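Annex B. Sample input.
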Amino acid sequence: MNRTRNQLQQLLFILLGVFIPTSIAISNFLIGGLVLCWILEGDFLKKITQTKQSKWILSIFGLIGLYVLGLCWGDNHLNAEWQFQRLALLLVFPIFITTELKQKTIKRAVIAFLGTAVISALVALAINSNVISPLGEYFSFIGIKDNSAFLKYNYHNVILALAFSLCLYILIEKKSKYQYLLLFFLLIYALSIFTEPGRAGQVIFNLSVVFYILYYNRKHFLRLCALLVLLFSFQFIVYKSTEVYKNRFDALSNVIQNNGEGGEGKIDDIRYIFVKESLDRIIKNPILGYGTGSFGTIFNHEVKSGHVFDTHTTPHNQYLYVWFELGIFGLLLLLSIFFHQIRELFKKKDGIHRILLPLSFMFLMLVDAYFFIFILTSCYIFLFTIYTKYQQA
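Annex B, continued. Sample output.
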């Protein structure tokens, strides 16, 4: 019975690599299966001991506990139920970390994730280039708008960028004999990332490439400069040849040049409004914040920007969101999670490569509340488990 359950756990984890890039519903089902196996496995004293050894897990419990206490202050908690639904996913972190996964399972999960991501990227390229027009009609039929293959572009784009970083690490460190296949994967990821409107994935792509250029060429100045010029040239070619990328780049440049202000007769950029209005209120109550589930209600009642995004329950920034609702203590707990994760990964062999995952996710949280978005948090938990449990030979 125990052997069968363990085999099921290994299979479910591998299947996550297939469905995280393709299906939110099935990913949810697979995570539920892994949680159930973990509960049936028992041996909770051992698991509690393992949990105590990771300070970042304790920080997660602390953050969830503070959200519970956050119900005790403030007058607006209408979005608290929505918040706790997202927080529940964070409890999967200690479950995955204390699940025994074989090295063979870890490697197969990586293959499944990278392989499925490249298939998803190829489908997205076909849709965006109108090569296979029935695909676009199919996805519109099932109700997915602004899609990039199986997920919305802003989720798909980020997952491809994380897959790109992992694939680049495997290729550079020669951890696979299929070098040419990995090069093909990297090319497809890059093409898909830069032919979609999602900017977060594009920035993660650039950060990963710059990181590796600097890391491996820090003692070779001329080669470092040549590679940076090559990267800039790639960006320039993409900018000139891809309308989607050009439009998004120009729009972002305009926002930066005008400090987010729309000018006479124009509406200010919504992210600028989110940051400005959030900081104005945080300054007034920086210690405790306004309570769990308060941001959406306060913003909707007090700010009339004219944007369709006025109904959002987060300010498109994870740090501001937590600080707004839980005060400085909530922000410190959030930062503590990633600080201790980075420390833990850095101590491992090839730690410099492993920490790129949490660093990338920390950047992503500057542009949205990604720590509370199901599929991207699931992807981060899945990849973090791989980066933590993979044992370098």
